[in-house]
Amino acid sequence: MNDGVDSWIANEFSGVCPVRDLLDRIGDKWSVMVVLRLGRGTERFRALLRAVDGISQRMLTVTLRALESDGLVHREVFDTRPPSVAYSLTPLGVSLLVHISALANWAMEHEAEVKEAQAAFSAKTAKAPSEHRN
Amino acid sequence: MNDGVDSWIANEFSGVCPVRDLLDRIGDKWSVMVVLRLGRGTERFRALLRAVDGISQRMLTVTLRALESDGLVHREVFDTRPPSVAYSLTPLGVSLLVHISALANWAMEHEAEVKEAQAAFSAKTAKAPSEHRN
DNA sequence: CAGTATCCGACAGGATACTG
DNA sequence: CAGTATCCTGTCGGATACTG
Q1: What tens digit of pLDDT does each residue of B28-56 get?
Q2: Contacts of B75 in chain A (CB under 8 A)
Q3: For residue A1, what are the contacts with CB-CB under 8 A and spacing of at least 6?
Q4: Rounded to an integer, what distance in angstroms lies between the CA atom of residue B36 and that of residue B53?
Q5: Could you check: is the Cβ of residue A85 within 7 Å of any atom of nucleic acid strand C?
Q6: Nucleotides of C under 7 A from a protein CB
Q7: Which of A84, A125, B75, B78 has its CA 20 to 30 A from that of B102?
Q8: What is the number of domains present in chain A?
Q9: What confidence tens digit (pLDDT) does each residue in A39-89 have?
Q10: Is A42 part of a structural domain of the chain?
Q11: What is the pTM of this model?
């Protein structure tokens, strides 16, 4: 199953690698959120803007362009009045969505564990340094 | 399978969500690379520094601290001369590694498709704008 | 509605020097 | 070796205003 990554990691691991590329793309602030949302189905610009909470118009445009250029998102323009543009996942995008969803699920399942670990870590580091209070 | 994310997306999708949190953590430049590398087994600071190509000493420290505080990485100090510190994945880290590896594999499998899409996109956008040459 | 163009602040992260 | 402390730059991304 993991033979692909495994062998790659075993050899040189880094330098020029597809994982770095992938992260440089969808590792940004919004890509994953947009892909997840589009996983529900085709959606228009405005709708996405409202759905993906906190994203600015500019960043939605930028993100969609990037995803489109990577072949993950399909953009279809309808010459209506007022103009309308629909975005949807390409088959490639769907194939990625699977893994992203898995990651999202992991995040939800282990949310508590992470918070617990953070609390433990804070407690541990709080007493370690010779407390220099302000 | 996806019912977790799905129902969440269906409701409000965004706002405060575990996926945002996860991305804010491991969505940075190095976390995923380090986790992938540690997936091979315990490794010491220097070794990691050499293995994860391109990372600076500072960023390795910062990244490891973050991963440790999230409970994904375990840090063990050996009081030797010279000092030695070993890093390894916690069970939680391993559970995440599974999905990250899947993503890494996806990246490798679809590397060509993405590049193809990018070429097509460049070609398409190259003629659209009223070429303003430098 | 669906963008594009600017401006700008915040912060991620690289380089370097120093410590136990 | 395994860090910490500083400094400094690039760029990510938010706010705002304008266009077809």
Answers
A1: 999 999 999 999 999 999 999 999 999 99
A2: none
A3: none
A4: 13
A5: yes
A6: 1-6, 12-17, 20
A7: B75
A8: 1
A9: 999 999 999 999 999 999 999 999 999 999 999 999 999 999 999 999 999
A10: yes
A11: 0.90
With CB atoms and an 8 Å threshold, state whether B20 touches A8: no
CATH number at residue B15: 1.10.10.10
> How many Cβ atoms are within 10 Å of B72's Cβ, its own excluded?
28
Residues 40-99 of B with CB under 8 A from A: 40, 51-54, 68-72, 92, 95-96, 99
Asked whether residue B95 is assigned to any structural domain, the reply reads yes
Q: Does residue B14 belong to any structural domain of this protein?
A: yes
* In contact, A112 and B71? CB cutoff 8 Å: no
Q: Domain for residue A7, yes or no?
A: yes
Residue A67: which domain range? 3-127
- Does B10 contact A40 at a Cβ distance shorter than 8 Å? yes
